[in-house]
Amino acid sequence: MRMIGNLDFDIYFLVLVGGYGMVLWLVDSYKYKNEKQEALEKKAKTIGITTMSIAALLFLTQIFLR
């Protein structure tokens, strides 16, 4: 695994991917909540769930590779 200082690069990537998914999910769901556009909320939830799933898989593979 590549190292940056004392922290693994994978931890940074995990936080970035998970944070990006959560930010997209929250911003899209709050932004269009009053307009009741269900298609955009479904898209935001799909993006959020997908990125969080990728982050969880990266975390589990990082645990098993140690």
Automatic annotation (TrEMBL):
Membrane found in the keyword field: yes
UniProt entry keywords in alphabetical sequence: Membrane, Transmembrane, Transmembrane helix
InterPro entries registered for this protein in UniProt: CLC_0170-like
TM segment ranges: 9-27, 47-65
The protein's name in its UniProt record: Uncharacterized protein
Species, as recorded: Clostridium cellulovorans (strain ATCC 35296 / DSM 3052 / OCM 3 / 743B)
Lineage: Bacteria, Bacillati, Bacillota, Clostridia, Eubacteriales
